[in-house]
């Protein structure tokens, strides 16, 4: 007889605790993993092991609880409800497969290669502003680098004017906050306004690209066709919105954590610096594995599930922990090591798994690789210049501030 979930004696994880981050977060997760593969959370349970994580991400008996959030927080009309209904992460089955079929070609490894020169140009312009002619320099890395870089990239991908990157960043930030319940309750009007403003903006951009197509995502989506099927304007604008809210905070946060990890470990920076082109890819993979900025992804069960002799009732909220899963089957997995044999480690679950696997994974990887190569070619020594300010691990796990000091290499 399977055991009902409620009969299990499980430890607890309050992942909503804003003080849970940095070393304390790592220690808490290590303790939980030592206890077993499952723990309680304020809303349901969390899965702490690779195979189980993969199961709950892939099963058709679970969905992303986006519409549950709408229901719980009485989002019953208006632009935000429209956005939630159309969000690709909230769609399932044939509807979801159709959209992915039309949008995937824009984000293949080959397709994202064409954005690398623009990424390098943005890095160079940000670098010039931050560093100037000083050989010894300091900056608050999040504000100076991590924040402007992904929004400039996404503006380019969208075909938006670069001057609009700060606006896009702000919209992305507000719309993304629908996944943060206290902010959703307190700031509903501001989030609604951001969605409405973005819809107007993207609608105008769509008209402009229809009249004058370019080499950008919107032009590509206008032309996208699969078996005679095309995207409607509403679908197209919502896909662009998903790319914007999926692609800004995430890359910003992963880049900031990666620089923090390297600044805390001078020997790893020296290794990267000795071979930037050769090691940047491995450093990105190790940072994605060791400090995923999506440490938890949520699912809600749409029917009862029996797994490992446990019965999970319908409507159970299951958090899937990529942080925990990424440590399974990795020798000395709690150590950050950019020189480890990446081929021996399983792929990280940082970008999810199954049909909702991150649409922008190739773009994010390219952005992170370009940034690390660029910085390692120019920075000789790198160190923290004060304590990083961590955000919470709920949602996108970012840094509010990362003070760094560094010396510029001769050839820089
Ligand atoms: C380091 C950077 C990033 C990380 C760690 C990340 C992580 C994730 C994860 C974990 C999911 C799956 C969520 C789930 O199944 O519940 C996801 C989905 C998604 N991501 Fe990313 N992401 C990143 C960057 C990007 C970028 C640059 C884009 C821009 C194209 C993007 C767009 C999306 C979209 C549209 C989805 C929904 C896919 C679907 O539902 O089919 N992400 N991402």
From TrEMBL:
PROSITE patterns: CYTOCHROME_P450 (PS00086). Keywords: Heme, Iron, Metal-binding, Monooxygenase, Oxidoreductase. Belongs to the cytochrome P450 family. PANTHER family: CYTOCHROME P450 YJIB-RELATED (PTHR46696:SF1), P450, PUTATIVE (EUROFUNG)-RELATED (PTHR46696). GO terms for molecular function: heme binding; iron ion binding; monooxygenase activity; oxidoreductase activity, acting on paired donors, with incorporation or reduction of molecular oxygen. This is Cytochrome P450.
